[in-house]
Design a protein that fits this description.
Blueprint lengths: L2 E2 L2 E2 L4 H8 L3 E5 L4 E5 L4 E2 H4 L8 E5 L3 E6 L4 E5 L7 H22 L4
Amino acid sequence: MPRIDGRPALLRPDTLAAFAQIQTAGFDLVLRRHKAWAVGFHASSEVYPMLAAGSFGHSGAGGQQALADPRNELSYAFLRRRFLVPSQADADHARLLTALLRSVRESGAAA
């Protein structure tokens, strides 16, 4: 089992893969746009293509976002102080995720 900072990982690789496996895709009547859904999570790389396939997460009301990108060994959570329609926040998250991934890759932290 993989280890993180010397401790066993909380989730096994097969559990992470199950979280990321797309179960359904189509027009989401709540979000009013196309979405791909995994087991309770969004397929994050669909919205943020800079993430690796197998990334998963969930957005929240007001533009919050939390996700995991196991291939890049990255987790991300962002909470806002002001309320935005979720799609308005996508560009902000894209800029932050791009900068975060660049930093991780430049530091050599990702496998």
